[in-house]
Design goal:
Structural class: mainly beta
Distance between the termini: 22 Å
Mean pLDDT: 88
Radius of gyration: 26 Å
Order of helices and strands: EEEEEEEEEEEEEEEEEEEEEEEEEEEHHE
Low-confidence stretches: none
Strand content: over 45%
Shape: elongated
Number of domains: 3
Helix content: under 10%
Number of strands: 28
Number of helices: 2
Largest sheet: 5 strands, antiparallel
Amino acid sequence: MSGANRQSVQLVDLNADGEKEAVAFFRATGDRPLRLCIFQKMADTYQLCATIDGTGSAIDSVEYINIDGRPGLEIILGWQVSDSVTQYLGVYALDGWRVTELMSASYNEYCTVDLDSDGQSELFLLKSDAQTRTGIAQLYRYDGSQMEKEPDVAMSVGVENLRRLITGYMAPGVMAVFAASSFEQSGIVTDVFVLQNDLFYNASVSDDGSGLSAQTVRNYFIYADDIDDDGIIELPMPIQLPAAREGETEEFWVICWYNLTLEREQEPKLLTYHNYSAGWYLDLPEAWKDRLTVYRTEGTAGWIYTFALLDDAGGEPTPLVHISPISGSGSKLSNGWFVLGAVSDLTYAALIPPEAAKLPEGLTEKELIDRFHVIRYDWNTGET
């Protein structure tokens, strides 16, 4: 039902002998209607050598991961017991062709991750209750003979539905799990789980005893991401910009991206303006942060977005750059407009006003082109 492995028959080398076994999935009758069959290749044919039966309505997911550190792969099966959100997870090891269940647990979402960087994957599970708005994270590690569970760790207080679960480095050499959940219907809270010095904990929860993550993001489209491609996951903090003119009601926001340290401190990394409806974002100079305003006007091919600096004396903002979609490929641009890049079937162009070129905060054409990016979309959810 989910995950990367959805074929009815899958080929995988489970016992590390260099020959791929055939793993096939069937629906039978009786009390345990779901069946996984493992076939070993014998000369020119395949022979059934092991089965795993389970109850439920469907198999939610299957993964093949090294859990115990020995040659070969373990099988992680998620069983969809009913139409409810909570599901049942089993980890199965092959000893010869005898199947041993290493652990089982209920879950809402799970992932495999090497949190302690020892070369073996751990099993990370999330369980949440939307009605009570509580959730816990669980981590299972193989201790040489069985799967041991670390003490449960609480998610942020008030979390509702999990929206995204990713793994990545929160700092050099420090792997983490980033869990983004709905919060109070209009926001998202991101929990960051790490394992340091054999202690499993939520690195994003504040030390003030509130049980809340250090930063709540109030925009469903903003998730943790390696925005600057440095191999470290950044967290987003949206900042509302001041209005360009008095009485302006349209809101514009920039995003301050930061790394979360093990000491729960925030290290700013990047400032961006994301235009989610158009599919592009602009990497902003730090010098623009405290005086920037954005407004838009109607153009011939769509909205023209203007980035401008506010006047300390309260005068009209000074435009730094205009960005607009254009018709065609942009080969016949004039009056100072130049191509920034393309998003789907639209080409975007920019214009640097003459007064902006004289400002120390101004950017060159090359700098603007380098700072213009297409928003990446998650293939699984369709979200950014």
